[in-house]
Specification:
Number of helices: 7
Shape: globular
Radius of gyration: 19 Å
CATH architecture: 4-Layer Sandwich
Largest sheet: 9 strands, mixed
CATH superfamily: Endonuclease/exonuclease/phosphatase
Low-confidence stretches: none
Distance between the termini: 37 Å
Number of domains: 1
CATH topology: Deoxyribonuclease I, Chain A
Strand content: 25-35%
Length: 347
């Protein structure tokens, strides 16, 4: 059962190291994951505001790629006059992002409320391309997850841990040993038309369209109710399963040659869209036709790029969708995903 907390439980380094050795030696993954209480905690970050959304909500979804550039991200969020942001890939106590709680830093910088939950306990420092100099030899906490930050209070918050994403298949396969699995977060906000549900997820990129649709079906069956709803995040709508190909980039090029707009418009190839439509969601007015992947200085992701970040609405009206370049005021790239935004009309 999810425990709501104001401070997450930090797994001791000794426990993280013991789990790494044990799972490497073939001990049951679930036996060790169960020892990390942070995987069943939902952190509540309280801001000062008590205001209710009245006429328009400006909402965004952003995979902020660890959140290490949270200061610059706060400037973009202010510049776009956003009220709510759905965040993916945020760090807490990771060497690669300065050992800080990037979601809490961002929320406090904005003076907002927030929710944060752990997808994965990272058992090493991260991908080989991530180390920076100087870099601490150990993570203080090793936590990585998703968040919602909001100008408005977040009521009745919840955490959903996907049934078929325990993370065991991931271990060592991608040189990033970790415990945990994919999650979704949600809450209600009070508005002029009644309560509206806000929810977000980060779907698995190393699975295929069928598995992503299965996760969305589980989420909708568990969490969708009669409230109007905004749903979004990094849905990784790549249209194929990269683990089934020895050279995924070559496969992307082959598929793009057959259908040039396949990755910009993945709707026909990802059944989660049909499922969302059948559940009462639409996405046409809250997304642009732009790609959302942004190459970083290391040269990844590589073309052909796609739109893998999405917003959906149910029983609401959206307008003025934008895809905002993930570029800071100093000209640096802030993430390998651009920010997507739209306005939700409440009157």
């Amino acid at each position: 059962m999810t425990k709501r907390v104001t401070q997450l439980s930090i797994p001791p380094l000794a426990l993280r190291n013991a789990a790494l050795d044990a799972v490497d030696n073939g001990e049951p993954y679930s036996l060790w994951a169960d020892q990390f209480s942070c995987l069943d905690e939902l952190q509540i970050i309280s801001g000062p505001s008590t205001e209710r959304a009245s006429k328009i909500i400006r909402i965004g979804a952003w995979n902020l790629e660890r959140g290490r550039d949270w200061r610059e991200a706060s400037k973009v969020i202010r510049e776009q006059r956003l009220d709510i942001v759905l965040l993916s890939e945020m760090d807490y106590g990771m060497s690669r992002s300065g050992q800080v709680h990037t979601t809490q830093q961002l929320a406090e910088e904005l003076g907002w409320h927030g929710l944060f939950a752990v997808e994965f306990v990272e058992l090493e420092l991260g991908h080989a391309w991530e180390p920076v100099t100087p870099m601490d030899p150990e993570n203080i906490a090793g936590l990585h997850g998703n968040a919602i930050i909001s100008r408005f209070p977040l009521m009745k918050p919840w955490l959903h841990r996907f049934q078929f994403s325990d993370g065991s298949w991931w271990h060592r396969q991608f040189n990033e040993p970790r415990l945990g699995g994919r999650i979704a977060l949600g809450a209600l906000i009070e508005t002029a038309i009644g309560d509206v549900q806000i929810m977000t997820t980060h779907l698995e990129n190393n699975q295929g369209p069928a598995e992503r649709a299965k996760a969305v079906a589980e989420l909708f069956q568990t969490r969708i109710d009669d409230h109007p709803c905004v749903f979004g995040g990094d849905l990784n709508t790549s249209t194929f399963n990269p683990t089934q190909h020895t050279d995924p980039f070559r496969e992307r090029s082959r598929l793009s040659a057959i259908t040039p707009d396949r990755f910009r418009n993945p709707v026909p190839f990802e059944p989660l869209f049909e499922l969302a439509h059948a559940t009462g969601f639409q996405w046409g007015t809250c997304n642009t036709g732009d790609v959302t992947q942004r190459p970083r200085e290391r040269g990844y992701p590589r073309a052909p790029l796609g739109r893998i970040d999405w917003l959906f609405i149910k029983q609401l009206i959206a307008q003025h969708a934008q895809t905002i370049p993930a570029i800071g005021t100093d000209g640096r790239t802030l993430s390998d995903h651009d920010l997507i935004t739209c306005e939700i009309r409440l009157t």
